[in-house]
């Protein structure tokens, strides 16, 4: 899995100069919950969004997130984003991807969700996002709501 994530990140870095868009780095935190358990979460993400005309974009990101609870480990993810740009400084998007398991007895997951990103000047942005984690083998599905603060390049 680590090789897949590194390959995707390298591909995004190589393709970035040929695309019209922006790279981004963010720190984020929020709440993760599953039946009977709610915990804080913190993480970081790096991504690239390419413009699809003036009103839409397509992007991808790699991420590392940690549920702040004993016996949890960092979950790594790869996510695609597709969205609209309601204004020059805002993005409304749907997202989906894959996340590694966040504990020894947990399951990896496919995730789907959506969010809103708002620019504050030319480089700073804030973001809120919801994700649903669909697990397998009858493991409980998880949910997360996160807020992030990042820089655009």
Structural class: mainly beta
Mean pLDDT: 90
Strand content: over 45%
Give, in order, the helices and strands: HEEEEEEEE
**Low-pLDDT sequence parts:** 14-18
> How many distinct beta strands?
8
**Helicity, as a percent range:** under 10%
Counted by DSSP, the helix tally is: 1
Overall radius of gyration: 15 Å
Largest pleated sheet: 8 strands, antiparallel, barrel
Strand order of the largest sheet: 1-2-3-4-5-6-7-8
What descriptors fit this protein?
153 residues; 1 helix; single chain; 9% helix; mainly beta; eight-stranded antiparallel beta barrel
In a few lines, what is going on in this structure?
This protein is mainly β. It has one helix and eight strands; from the N terminus they run H-E-E-E-E-E-E-E-E.
Explained architecture:
The protein is mainly beta. The protein is 9% helix and 64% strand. It is built from 1 helix and 8 strands. It has one helix at residues 2-15; strands at residues 21-34, 37-51, 56-67, 75-87, 90-99, 109-120, 124-134, 142-152. It has an 8-stranded antiparallel barrel with strand order 1-2-3-4-5-6-7-8. A hairpin with a 4-residue loop joins strand 2 and strand 3.
């Amino acid at each position: 899995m680590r090789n897949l994530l590194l390959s995707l990140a390298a591909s995004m870095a190589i393709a970035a100069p040929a695309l019209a868009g922006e790279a981004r780095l963010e720190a984020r935190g929020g709440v993760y919950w599953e039946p009977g358990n709610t915990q804080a979460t913190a993480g970081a993400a790096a991504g690239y969004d390419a413009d699809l005309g003036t009103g839409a974009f397509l992007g991808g990101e790699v991420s590392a997130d940690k549920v702040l609870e004993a016996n949890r480990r960092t979950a790594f993810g790869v996510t695609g984003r597709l969205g609209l740009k309601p204004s020059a400084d805002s993005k409304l998007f749907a997202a989906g991807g894959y996340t590694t398991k966040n504990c020894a007895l947990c399951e990896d997951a496919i995730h789907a969700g959506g969010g809103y990103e708002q620019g504050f000047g030319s480089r700073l942005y804030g973001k809120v996002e919801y994700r649903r984690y669909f697990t397998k083998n009858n493991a409980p599905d998880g949910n997360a709501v996160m807020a992030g603060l990042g820089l655009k390049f």
